[in-house]
Amino acid sequence: MRRLVIAIAAAVLALAGCGGEAIVPPGQGGHGHGATSAAPPVPAASARFNDADVTFVQMMVDHLQLGISLSQVALAKATKQEAKDLAGAIDATQREELSMLKSWLKLWGKPETGGADLHAAHGGQPLLDDKVIDGTKEKSGAEFDLTFLNLMAGHQGAAVEMALTEKKDGSNPETMAYAERVATTRQGQISQMLKVISEQ
Questions:
Q1: DUF305 domain spans which residues (predicted)?
Q2: 160/135 Cα distance (integer angstroms)
Q3: How distant, in Å, are the alpha carbons of 43, 86, 108 from that of 68?
Q4: Which of 27, 105, 172, 194 is deepest in the core (most CB within 10 A)?
Q5: Longest pairwise C-alpha distance within the chain
Q6: Domains and CATH numbers, the chain
Q7: What count of other Cβ atoms lies within 10 Å of the Cβ of residue 50?
Q8: Is the per-residue pLDDT at 26 higher than 70?
């Protein structure tokens, strides 16, 4: 599994054509500092949107909730400081993004979830789900750190793929700007996680 997730994340970085930048500068800890949290806030979405915008936002709502859940486990169990720092930054940033995206869907009069077939219609089920997250709770020490980093790298790689699709097919300016932000920041996270994994 380690090789599979690394391969997925590396392929996403190659597809995006950019290695990104680190999300958490050394010494910043898990307080939301770094490339992701330093990004300027995205304004409230305008009322003009298409189906691609709605699908992207709904998929990201589910994606962010899973990422927050995994980050919470890592904040409690991770032993490597770099893993804790990443988990803290991801948790803080994705909570902010989740609130923003839910407000956009409310403005558009759309539900927060697109239904059970939403992911299936866009390449299959996500790598991360509640069962997988629960399974990480049984691990500890270096084994947990490596599992967390692998899962989160693959998870954020999926976000980059969704963002690239939104940039191609979307029409809402704010949603497309958010997709650009997702692609950039998640590439940075993946690069940093792959670096930490290589040092294990």
A1: 53-195
A2: 25
A3: 22, 12, 24
A4: 172
A5: 48
A6: 2-198 (1.20.1260.10)
A7: 12
A8: no
* Residue 52 near residue 169, CB atoms below 8 Å: yes
Where do we find the tokens 């391969």?
7
Give CA–CA dist 158/126, Å, rounded. Answer: 8
CA 158, CA 141: separation in Å to the nearest integer?
A: 26
In this prediction, residue 29 has a pLDDT band, given cuts at 50, 70 and 90, of very low
Q: Which of 59, 70, 36, 53 is nearest to 183 (CA)?
A: 36
DSSP state of 47: S
When pLDDT is averaged across residues 44-62 and rounded to a whole number, the result is 91
First to last CA, the chain: 15
Q: Which residue has the higher pLDDT, 116 or 196?
A: 196
> Distance between CA atoms of 108 and 114, rounded to whole angstroms?
14
pLDDT in tens, 40-50: 455 577 778 99
- Averaged pLDDT for residues 54-61: 96
Q: Which two tokens stand for residue 96?
A: 């902010």
- Whether 150 contacts 31, CB under 8 Å: no
Which of 38, 37, 41, 132 has its CA nearest to residue 88? 37
Say how far apart CA 71 and CA 167 lie, in whole Å: 27
* d(C-alpha 117, C-alpha 107), whole Å: 23
Q: Structure pTM?
A: 0.78
